[in-house]
Amino acid sequence: MNKDLFLKAAPILNQIQENGFEAYFIGGSVRDYLMNRPIHDIDITTSASPDEIESIFDHTIPIGKEHGTINVVYQNENYEVTTYRAEGEYKDHRRPDEVYFVRDLYKDVERRDFTMNAIAMDTDFTIRDYFGGYEDIKQKRIVTVGPAEERFTEDALRILRGLRFKSQLGFDIEDATYNAMKNRMADTAYLSIERIIVELTKLLNGKDVAHVYPLLLELNFFDYVPFFKNHKMSHIHICEPISLELMLAVMMFKQPENNSALAKLKISNDMKKKVKMYCSIFEKLETLSDKKALRLLVYDYGLPVLSYILSMHETLNENRIYLGHPLIINQESIKEIDKDLVISKRSDIAINGKIILETLNRKGGPWLKDILRKIECAIINHELQNEQSEIIKWVKANV
Ligand code: ATP
Ligand code: MG
Predict the structure, then answer these.
(1) Among 11, 314, 337, 355, which one is most buried in terms of CB atoms within 10 A?
(2) Ligand 1, atom 25: closest residue by C-alpha
(3) Which of 30, 81, 107, 117 for mutating ligand 1's site (highest number of atoms within 8 Å of CB)?
(4) Which atom number of ligand 1 is nearest to the Cα of residue 28?
(5) Which residues line ligand 1 (CB under 6 A)?
(6) 284 contacts 292 by C-beta, under 8 angstroms
(7) Does 28 belong to an annotated binding site?
(8) Taking a C-beta distance cutoff of 8 angstroms, is the pair 308, 282 a contact?
(9) Is 257 exposed, middle or buried (CB count within 10 Å of its CB: 0-12, 13-18, 19+)?
(10) According to the model, what pLDDT value does residue 107 have?
(11) What is the pLDDT of residues 267-293, one digit of tens each?
């Protein structure tokens, strides 16, 4: 049940309250609970100072003490407990110059981004909702706490968070909030690319991304993001939830002239590798002609990756990326092929480079890599049995 996580965390709130302080559940978990969505992490907000929290609990970790956040470890779970906080002035559109601790819940929720995220809840599930957040949740609308223009001017990340929440929740963005997004979008240029990427990744995976993507275009969001700003984003189409890597691959494949800017996104090497892998699969799919080539494709890239690409056919079609003839390549055919693969990786071959060199009495060189690939292909395509004696015979006849 949705209440379980709160009931499990209730003793923390009780303990803080028994020590004479206030404590509430707050933020995304309360919002998701009121929407009947699955809840992940529970955040707690309190009138107690970080030092006071540390003295109340035996096991704490000061993960963000200067900003008021202490992790309380309770029954092997980590709970973020943050002291009521008010914020000083914002000068750079992304972080307050100073934060200070306060004893008043209202002051704390006043600085939060959206009304749906500013609802505090007690252990008996009663809510303290100063800004009408619950009504906005019922009406499915995203509304800033206080004047939208001001709130976005303080911190431009809130603009992206708002769009990200729309994509995840399928809500509407209230008019004044949307207009302020339009007016302040240029401030997102002050944000670090890492924070933009976090929000964009969540946004792209949201169930409502097909409706949010046109808004991103309308708001000129991409004009302020490295790499993206070099692309004609109106020529890129997103019709369904998509991973950031696949979207980048679509962009690079369709508009390769801008690829050198990818490094500016500061994504991990693993992510970059994935993007390049998707691009090379697109390239191979363009000329995929027979079952032999398909078998190699399944062997080289694996079932999960190909299955994901095929599942994205609507978006890929819309971007005019060819996925091969549906009679040759489809979810069933790749599953079938995967099941029948004789080997699943190079080390499954019943021979290795060393044995080949010894058998042929030759020195190593680039030819060896070629021949190993040829052996691999022949085995995959059932032209050669995966047995050492057979492979040696084959090598002698073919080198
Ligand atoms: P999620 O379900 O993605 O975790 P969340 O609303 O919990 O969504 P968090 O980033 O975990 O988002 O932040 C917790 C709470 O802190 C938010 O609900 C909101 O009240 C507040 N908050 C977070 N970022 C900002 C911000 N940039 N400006 C104002 N308040 C913020
Ligand atoms: Mg959260």
Answers:
(1) 337
(2) 113
(3) 117
(4) 7
(5) 27-28, 43, 112-113, 117-118, 155, 157-158
(6) no
(7) yes
(8) no
(9) exposed
(10) 96
(11) 999 999 999 999 999 999 999 989 999
Q: Which ligand is nearest to the CA of 133?
A: 1
**Ligand nearest, relative to CA of residue 161:** 1
Predicted TM-score (pTM) of this structure: 0.94
158 is in an annotated binding site: yes
pLDDT band at 299 (very low <50, low <70, confident <90, very high): very high
Q: What single-letter amino acid sits at 185? A: M
At 263, the amino acid letter reads A
Q: What is the pLDDT of residue 112?
A: 97
